[in-house]
Structure formats: C-alpha cells, structure tokens
C-alpha cells in the first residue's frame, strides 16, 4: 500500500482557539475531538514500556481538509525526551502521517532512509509508529497501520463537513470514530 499523506498534524497551545482559527481562515470544520488520548500500549524505541498516562497526555482534533485530514493537537503533559523527539513547536508542521498495511516493512524502509523509530503505540484499534524525519523531513512521521478507523476517517470527517451548519465546531469523537 503506497498512498499519499493521510493527515498533517500541528501542535497548538489551545485546541479551541486553533480550531476556530482553522474554521475561520481555511473553512475547515467541524472537528472530531479525542480528549486525553489513552494508550493501551506505548513502547519507546529502546523497548521501554510506558504506563504513566502523564508521559504523553494530549487531546487531538481532526477535520477534513480537502483530500486529507487536518489534526490539531494540544499537549497537556509530556516527557521531556519525547517532546524533544517530536520537536514540539507551534510555528511549523508537527508531523505528517500515512497509512501502511505493514508497519514493520514501512518502518524498515524509513530506517533505510535515515529515519529513527521514536515509539510505537496502540489506542483501541489504532496502531501507530512514530519516526523522526531523518533526511526526509524536518518533522516526525507517523505511520498508521491500515484498519477501519483510519481508512474510514476522512470519509466520516468529509460527511460531517458536508452537513455542517457552522455550529458545534468541536464535537466529541465517538468509539466508532476510533
């Protein structure tokens, strides 16, 4: 599976303010919000299993933006090493994501291009692997394992946008959206 970007993500200091700005300037909305994303598993590149929810506590909001998904993420707490690996800043792209049918094979391809694994995580049916941008990008790469939540995300967001009346900009994500 070789597809283009699934989504582009930005770190924002305030999710509500950033979503309002995106709606006003880009015409993007509504956003489905996953507050305080919980992980079923979180393993650092060196093999350390992370169980402390404060290691990386964030809320993420997603909206259809043309053919891709826009993600805005507000960090509530994060380990200093992980923050450095992510290169968290509010003045640039936070990450680009694409979908693969084989995380190990796509990860090996990225590693051969000089990208290093940061971590892997599982949240419900969503399985991701984050890599630094290596020589490809000045920002991290988030690989998503292909599955119904990710493959159907843009269609769900686009349907919400088609019926959006401009109210209820931030809507809670439902379990079926994950």
From TrEMBL:
Domain (VOC): residue spans on this chain: 4-146
InterPro entries the UniProt entry points to: Glyas_Bleomycin-R_OHBP_Dase, VOC_core
Keyword annotations of the record: Dioxygenase, Lyase, Oxidoreductase
Keyword Lyase attached: yes
UniProt-recorded Gene Ontology molecular function terms: dioxygenase activity; lyase activity
Pfam families cross-referenced by the UniProt entry: Glyoxalase_4
Origin superkingdom: Bacteria
Protein name per Swiss-Prot or TrEMBL: Catechol 2,3-dioxygenase-like lactoylglutathione lyase family enzyme
Protein source organism: Actinoplanes digitatis
